[in-house]
Amino acid sequence: MDIKNIVILEEAAQDMRDGKAFYEMQTQGVGNYFWDSIIADIESLYIYAGVHELHHELFRMLSRRFPYAIYYQLNNNTAHILAVLPIRRDPQWIFNRLNQ
Predict the structure, then answer these.
(1) Which range of residues forms the domain containing residue 71?
(2) Angle at 32 between CA 99 and CA 25, to 5 degrees
(3) What tens digit of pLDDT does each residue of 1-39 get?
(4) Rounded Cα distance, 100 and 4, in Å
C-alpha cells in the first residue's frame, strides 16, 4: 500500500511516553533509545503498511528492539497509530485498551 501520511493518535503518543518513562527508570538513556526505536518502527510503515497480521481488527506490527506492538489502521493513504503497547501485559488488558 502506498502510504503518504502517518498519524499518531494522542492515546498512542501517551503509550510511547509511558514506555519511555518506564525504560528510563530502568537505566538512564534507555528511554531515549526506546523512543527512537519506536519512531523508526513507525516510520517503516511508509514501506510495510498493511503487511502485518490483524489482531483485534487492527494491524499489529511488532517492534524490532523492544517487546512492544504498534497497532494501526489504514484509511486511504494514511496509517493511523492507535496504540503502542507492551506485549508482555495480560492479553485481557491489551484487549481492553484497544477497545476503549
Answers:
(1) 5-98
(2) 80
(3) 789 999 999 999 999 999 999 999 999 999 999 999 999
(4) 27
